[in-house]
Specification:
Helix content: 55-70%
Largest sheet: none
Domain HTH tetR-type: 11-71
Order of helices and strands: HHHHHHHHHH
Number of strands: 0
DNA-binding region: 34-53
Keywords: DNA-binding, Transcription, Transcription regulation
Pfam families: TetR_N
Strand content: under 5%
Protein name: TetR family transcriptional regulator
Distance between the termini: 75 Å
Number of helices: 10
């Protein structure tokens, strides 16, 4: 005899609902996006949202984790896979030009754009920490190349990392303002001209 399944099955696809929430936060930012907006795009009621994801902030934190493992993963891969800091940042900026202007999803970077006008201290801190972690990862790669002689001694790793981060963040906003992939790739090329020559 078949065992009767306990509990009421979910009437929605959780992964699909999470993807729809990601798109809404990406388009509108954290502050402007309301629970009513989320339930509308996710196709569920507020009780189902709270039961499946917790409150709005908890849902957003899950969105950030998912974004980092999917749409935003190109940045982590570039820094992890390239043999030098210069190659990693070159790849990072060129892939950003492509990803930030991809019409398959909202333009720019969710972690950057979602912070606009955010009054939640907890969410602002989470987003700032993520951005600062990215800067620290770039600075670490640059510092390793200085130590190995691949970049000149005396290169300021912190400043060069912040320059790279500023270009990355600026490219996100410019993509939202209508810049094309070709225009942003040109920005990436120009930014790399600020790097010092190889140390060897």
């Amino acid at each position: 005899m078949a065992t009767k399944q306990r509990g009421r099955p979910r009437s929605f696809d959780r992964d699909k609902a999470l993807e729809q929430a990601t798109m809404e936060f990406w388009r509108r930012g954290y502050e402007v996006t309301s629970v009513a907006d989320l339930t509308r795009v996710m196709g569920i009621g507020a009780p189902s949202l709270y039961a499946a994801f917790g409150d709005k902030r908890s849902l957003f934190e899950e969105v950030l984790r998912t974004y980092g493992a999917t749409y935003g993963a190109f940045a982590t891969r570039a820094l992890a896979e390239e043999p030098t800091a210069r190659a990693a940042v070159t790849r990072l900026l060129h892939e950003a030009a492509s990803e930030f202007t991809d019409p398959a999803h909202p333009y720019g970077c969710l972690v950057i754009s979602a912070a606009a006008n955010c009054t939640s201290e907890c969410v602002s801190t989470t987003l700032r920490d993520r951005r600062n972690a990215g800067l620290a990862a770039i600075e670490s790669r640059i510092a390793a190349d200085i130590a190995a002689g691949r970049l000149p001694r005396g290169t300021d790793a912190g400043t060069l990392a912040r320059l790279s981060g500023a270009v990355f963040q600026g490219m996100s906003q410019q993509a939202r303002d209508g810049a094309t992939r070709a225009e942003l790739e040109a920005v990436a090329e120009a930014a790399m001209l600020a790097w010092p020559p190889d140390g060897r």
